[in-house]
Write a structure and sequence with these properties.
CATH topology of the largest domain: Rossmann fold
Strand order of the largest sheet: 10-15-14-13-11-12
Structural class: alpha/beta
Helix content: 25-40%
Shape: elongated
Number of domains: 3
Radius of gyration: 30 Å
Mean pLDDT: 91
Length: 529
């Protein structure tokens, strides 16, 4: 492949950004401009000479614009192998001129869906001619340049100016790769809409994943692994991928993973009192709600001040100066918040390496959607764990029912346990975690670890007793034996929330009654692997 001079260009875009500037650059190099409908009108408004597509095909645009570029004089000009004698003869015999550049961006299908359009309007925004031209041009990139993104106009213009109106093979190959990715993503969005929204399928036969690379990362979980971050491109995407980084070093793979865990947990409390979540290695090490954000941070930090060092902090309110000052008191990797006032921003500005992410509105914890995890040779796909429990869902199974205060703490602890790696045990008191046991191979060990961490926190803080005294305990799945529950009772817990459903429930309930515990069943579990 060699450099190719652009003599004729076909432009048909829905997004007119940068179109006039590109048209003028092409005109400076004597390029014959051919265009369709609104694109032709925009070029003429910019003072450029342009021919309508009907002048090329000899046929008018018809069927409400559905048929305009689907013609041999278009696709022959795009697909012809210029140095193939048979192709050259066909072009001559049928009066087909070569087209050296195609500039196309597709009908705004995703935007149409996002605005809540009716089905007929959505169908009309499925582009046919555009993807056909894109694929023809991209396939024949040995001779044709294809541009699908206005962000690439500048590179094309620079290349034309540097070469006197020519495109290099390297540029055409890069543009072709991007073009095929664009049509794949476009078709993926259409297939997803048909499967999920139009047909109501939770698990369609083919599941298209449409992702856009946002950043190449320094490395993955470990320095010997390579990594990149891809963002979802759907109209309803909201989360860490859409957060605005205000300051700090670039995010690492582990930063993204931990920040996502922190955001998902704090979003559970988006409509409640000020709440702070501290995460380390994707597990919460402290969570609290309080009258102020600063008080919530202090209570969350007190749960495990050792693990909080170098952690990820997420809050459910706009950051203020007092909270920012408290957070800045120790080394913190990432802070995630809906917003931050000027005073808080000024505090963090002194911490140049601290990464501050502002998300705007927090994601809805009850939203639907799918989660996917790669395994060797395939993917596991499941619906999001958006299950939520309220007081009316609980079943009291012990002789003593929980007090109002215990009930509130049970629901708080249950919400936190949902975001702790299994096996998960969470002690909570007065709207704050007192001890967290995560990721153990048996529930008894998680219960012991959580109690031990609470005792350790009390010793470091100089408290007379650990905060598990008078606390409640949540278990993400049922207690298969009474031992884990009795460990919680020994640590000072007075109430228990757990799913129930074990064949030994009666034995566990009897043990709770004997220990004077109140216990409620949720009827739902929250395994998190």
């Amino acid at each position: 492949m060699t450099d190719v001079r652009i003599t004729r260009a076909l432009l048909s875009v829905s997004d007119k950004t940068g179109l006039a500037e590109l048209g003028r650059a092409l005109a400076r190099h004597g390029v014959d401009l051919i265009s369709t409908g609104g694109t032709a009108g925009a070029l003429r408004d910019a003072g450029l000479d342009v021919r309508d597509i009907s002048d090329l095909t000899g046929l008018p645009e018809m069927m409400d614009g559905r048929v305009k570029t689907l013609h041999p004089k278009v696709h022959g000009g795009l697909l012809a192998v210029r140095d193939d004698p048979a192709h050259a003869k066909a072009m001559t015999d049928h009066d087909i001129g070569p087209i050296d550049l195609v500039v196309v961006n597709l009908y705004p299908f995703a935007e149409t869906v996002a605005k809540g359009a009716e089905r007929d309007e959505i169908i009309e925004n499925i582009d046919i001619g555009g993807p056909s031209m894109v694929r023809s041009a991209a396939k024949n990139h040995a001779y044709v340049a294809i541009v699908t993104d206005p962000a690439d106009y500048g590179e094309l213009i620079t290349a034309l100016e540097a070469s006197g109106g020519m495109t290099s093979s390297d540029l055409r190959k890069r543009l072709a790769a991007k073009a095929f990715a664009a049509t794949a993503a476009y078709d993926g969005m259409i297939a997803s809409w048909f499967g999920f929204a139009d047909q109501g399928q939770l698990f369609p036969e083919t599941l298209p994943l449409t992702l856009k690379r946002s950043a190449e990362l320094r490395y993955g979980e470990n320095p010997h692994q390579k990594a990149a971050f891809y963002t979802a491109t759907g109209p309803a995407a909201r989360g860490i991928g859409q957060a605005r980084q205000v300051q700090g070093k670039e995010l690492s793979y582990n930063n993204y993973n931990d920040a996502d865990a922190a955001l998902e947990l704090v979003a559970e409390f988006r409509d409640t009192a000020p709440t702070c979540v501290i995460v380390k290695h994707a597990n919460p090490c402290g969570v609290a709600t309080a009258a102020t954000l600063n008080a919530a941070y202090e209570a969350a930090f007190a749960c495990d001040s050792v693990s909080a060092f170098g952690g990820i902090i997420a809050v459910n309110r706009a950051l203020d100066a007092a909270t920012a000052q408290a957070i800045a008191g120790i080394f913190t990797e990432v802070v995630v918040a809906p917003d931050a006032d000027d005073a808080a921003l000024a505090v963090f500005a002194a911490k140049k390496n601290l990464r501050l992410l502002l998300t705007g509105e927090l994601p809805d914890p009850a939203r639907g959607g799918l989660q996917a995890k790669s395994i060797a040779g395939g993917w596991l796909v499941q619906s999001r764990d958006n299950g939520r429990i309220v007081a009316e869902d609980l079943k009291v199974v012990t002789k003593r029912p929980p007090t109002d205060g215990e009930l509130a703490d049970c629901l708080f602890a249950w919400t936190v346990a949902k975001h702790v790696k299994s096996n998960a045990i969470v002690y909570a008191k007065d709207g704050a975690t007192a001890g967290i046991g995560a990721g153990q191979m048996n529930r008894l060990e998680s219960s012991r670890i959580a109690a031990w961490k609470a005792r350790d926190a009390a010793e470091k803080a100089g408290w007379p007793a650990p905060r598990t005294i008078g606390s409640v305990v949540a278990s993400d799945a049922f207690f298969p034996f009474p031992d884990g529950l009795l460990t919680a009772a020994e640590a000072g817990a007075t109430a228990v929330i757990q799913p129930g459903g074990s064949i030994r429930d009666a034995e566990v309930i009897a043990a709770a009654d004997e220990a004077g515990l109140a216990m409620v069943f949720t009827g739902a579990r929250h395994f998190r692997h």
